[in-house]
Amino acid sequence: MIQLGGSVAAVVLLVALAAWLGVARATPPLDAEAARALLAQEFPDHRPGAVWIAADGAGVIARADALALVLYRRGDGYVARDLPWAAVAALKPTNGRLTLRLADARPVLAVNDDVWPPKELA
Amino acid sequence: MLKAAFDPVQLAIPFFVVAIVLEILLGRFGKARANYEARDAAMSLSMGLGSNVAGLLLGGVIFAATVWVWHHRIFTIPMTAVWAWVVLFLLEDLTYYWFHRLAHERRIWWASHVNHHTSTHYNLTTALRQTWTGGVAGTWLLWLPLSFLGFPPAMVAIQKGISLVYQFWIHTEAIKRMPRWFEAVFNTPSHHRVHHARNARYLDANYAGILIIWDRMFGTFIPEVDEEPCRYGTVKNLGNFNLLYNVFHEWIGIGKDLAGSKSPREVLGYVFGPPGWSPDGSRDTSHTLKAKWRARTEAGEGISPQ
Predict the structure, then answer these.
(1) What is the spatial distance between Cα B305 and Cα A94, in angstroms, rounded to a whole number?
(2) Chain A nearest C-alpha distance from B240 (Å)
(3) DSSP string, B210-227
(4) ipTM of the complex
(5) CB distance B24–A24 less than 8 Å?
(6) 3-state secondary structure of A108
(7) Which of B35, B131, B189, B233 is a plausible cystine mate for B175, CB 3.0–4.6 Å?
(8) In sequence order, which residues have a C-beta less than 8 Å from that of residue B210 and are 6 or more positions away?
(9) Cα(A18)–Cα(A77) distance, rounded to whole angstroms?
């Protein structure tokens, strides 16, 4: 038990140190060029026709035929998922927030004026 | 002969802590490449801690099985002979190679190993992101032939520990390349970065523990190329920082697939097929991802294949 306690304390201290001094990757708000580059990297077999960037630049939804290609920020990186476009188009934002329902997460994307789907993707 | 007098991993823990602190500081002061994200590091370290606890649950069974096999051994190999340690070093490392290869290429063992690969970072805490379900997956069975040959269980345990400690320092971006002779023979940070990369060109490669020669011999070696930096994690990265989800998500995935399976062939495919196997081939495996990458590259879109 003493060893376990010591290990827990070491983990807590190391995490605190990583939070304080650790250098995370830079994830500035995505612009059109960065969003396209990220989409090309994560969905190399798709050719999205239209791209929408979240109001805070922390997420992207692109439309490739019947698919919505989704990128959202997790920590200092991005997670990629594809969903049926019809399901994404049917979502309703509230208070400027669009919540996606994925199998393993509920990412929230910032939407201007609660307009959904945006004109870029419609 | 039965129980190891010391555990190399336990002895190395203070070194692990000091090395992680040093890596964080080197990254902070721009002396080396080292990225840390607190939640990612927390998950890695918690996995390491939990792995020790989980190991206790089946540790007795594994130890008893190893001793039973050793009692039925072919030879009696002395623990004090230098030649025995040299032979064990090679055989244990070869065993590790095949364990590791199976752990990537067969889904039931991938379910246990995947959580070591879910970090999107590559730093020393990633080394500690160890499985909680290795005992259940039964990969320890692969080491039993060493005891059957006659290596004492304590000797095998010590060598396994040495291998694990060796593999700690290669989980870093702070070291770019080792001297050429070293890169030719040993597993290095460069070789192991490739192993942790999710770029299609790097998938299913560099399974080595200590010696990279096994990958070179069995055709699974891929060198790191500067034109394509490694991107870390799994093909489909985790969507959250939930520790338990990280531990069990692939097991849950297998369970869901089995619940929907329609034939014994599907059951076998979902359990023992490669990760991503599906009856109709609608999901991607490493093999299909690499094939698509090659096709794109040959069509002139990407970096040329090696």
Answers:
(1) 47
(2) 6
(3) SBTHHHHHHT------TT
(4) 0.92
(5) no
(6) strand
(7) B189
(8) B89, B93, B96, B163, B166, B167, B186, B187
(9) 16
Of B197, B288, B104, B118, the residue nearest A44 (C-alpha): B288
Please judge whether A18 and B38 are an interchain contact, meaning their C-beta atoms are less than 8 angstroms apart. Answer: yes
Amino acid at B6: F
Would you say B188 and B170 are in contact if contact means Cβ atoms under 8 Å apart? yes
Q: What angle do CA B157, B161, B166 make, to 5 degrees?
A: 150
A38/B contact by beta carbon, under 8 A: no
Q: Give the domain extent around A51.
A: 32-114
Q: Are B75 and B150 in contact (CB under 8 A)?
A: yes
Residue-level pLDDT at B303: 54
Cα separation, B169 vs B268, in Å, equals 37
Cα→Cα distances A81→A65, A67, B11, B39, Å: 15, 10, 42, 21
CA B72 to chain A, closest CA, distance in angstroms equals 35
Residue A90: both structure tokens together = 């049917």
Cis peptide before A117 (omega within 30 of 0): yes
Instruction: Answer whether 0.90 is exceeded by the pTM.
Output: yes
**Amino acid occupying residue B156:** V
**DSSP secondary structure letters along B68-97:** HHHHT-SS---TT-HHHHHHHHHHHHHHHH
From the list A24, A81, A105, the residue facing B35 with the nearest CB is A24
CB contact at 8 A, B172 and B132:
no
**What is the model's pLDDT at position A2?**
82
Q: Is B180 exposed, middle or buried (0-12, 13-18, 19+ CB in 10 A)?
A: exposed
* Helix or strand holding residue B41 (H, E): helix B38-71
Residues 6+ apart with CB under 8 A from B141: none
pLDDT at A114: 86
A57 occurs within a structural domain: yes
Burial readout B30-54 (b: 16 or more C-beta within 10 A, e: otherwise): eebbbbbbbbbbbbbbbbbbbbbeb
Q: According to the model, what pLDDT value does residue A6 have?
A: 86
Residue A121 lies in a domain: no
Pair type for strands A97-99 and A59-64? unpaired
Q: With contact defined as beta carbons under 8 Å apart, do A67 and A82 qualify? A: yes
A92 belongs to a structural domain? yes
Q: Which residues of chain B fall short of a pLDDT of 50?
A: 305-306
Per-residue pLDDT, B306:
46
Count of structural domains within chain A? 1
> Does the beta-carbon distance from A80 to B237 stay under 8 Å?
yes
Give one word for B190, left, alpha or beta, with left for phi > 0 and alpha for psi -120 to 50.
alpha
